[in-house]
Amino acid sequence: MGSYDLSARSRRLLATLVREYVETGEPVPSQVLARRSGLGVSSATIRNVLAQLEDQGYVHQPHTSAGRVPTDRGYRVFVDALLEGRKRARPPLTVETQLRRQVERSPFVSDLLASASHLVSRAARQVSFALVVSHGAVLQRIEFVALGGSRVLVVVMSRGNQLTQKAVDAGEIVRSDELVQAANYLNTEFAGLPLHQVRDAVAARLQQERTLYDQLLTRALRLAQSTLEPLPTNSTLHVEGAASLLAEAAQPAISVATLRALLEMMEEKERMVYLLDQYIDGPGLTVVIGAEHAAPDLRPFSLIASTATDGDTIRTVGVIGPLRMHYSRAIALVDGTTEAVSRVLRDAN
Prior knowledge:
Blueprint: H1 8-24, H2 30-36, H3 43-55, E1 59-60, E2 69-70, H4 72-83, H5 93-105, H6 109-124, E3 127-134, E4 139-148, E5 151-158, E6 162-169, H7 176-190, H8 195-207, H9 215-228, E7 234-240, H10 245-248, H11 256-267, H12 269-279, E8 284-289, E9 301-310, E10 313-322, H13 327-348
Antiparallel strand pairs: 1-2, 3-7, 3-10, 4-5, 5-6, 8-9, 9-10
Helix pairs in contact: 1-3, 1-4, 2-3, 5-6, 5-13, 6-13, 7-9, 8-9
């Protein structure tokens, strides 16, 4: 039986059960449901409906004498009902105000998304993430900064205020004035081209024998190549809220090993980017609940993400939290924040 085969009464009762369980964290007894659902039926009728919902896999009873709690499938029905006919949300005014202040301090998208992730994590009290992926980034400027010894920081700025930084070893000590000359050469030759074209052109020029006679030119190309080679797409991920995992440790359904796995995923950002890429196939909301996760270590959690696109650039803001989360509040928060990010960037440009 699919969720659309549930009667209106069963749906209403299930929604009441989910809301009560989210608020209390305790199995919900039939007497409470009879009082809170507004169905005007007896506890006996409520128990009959609950028995049917349990048979169909939407709720379960932890103990014989206990009330019911929702299953992953029950949460899915509840969330789908929330999304039906839902109006687009605006974030709290303070969120958009702080995002605009961030743009005034720094025009770079990466800094704005870091701020968005922090604000969402603080408001939701969950792990929050903000991701930007640019498939067609265009080089605006490249800079080299001496870090000491032979270490050089390569800063690549692309249109739309996208920023990528990488520390590389030049293999020799390079003076600051030489780094400025190397960057000027690259900017003159390649500014305005897509990053993937710049990467290919740099590789091609390094193959040309004549570059070997110009030490400055060769050094500039090699520094650019070391930064651009691993960037077939330009993605930046910000994750906040590791401290909120301490609160999840109190939930018996979430083991210490599971929390450790989530924390490791937060640190292994490449894996998290890959995972999000599997889930998000276009603009709008994405909600992944429990057993729907491809990664087994994420199945005790739900993921809510909102995605907006701007040409070849994709921006996503989301949260990862326990199955027993305030879905309506989290959906409104991430969706509203994604819209706010888009408005702030639009106004800034």
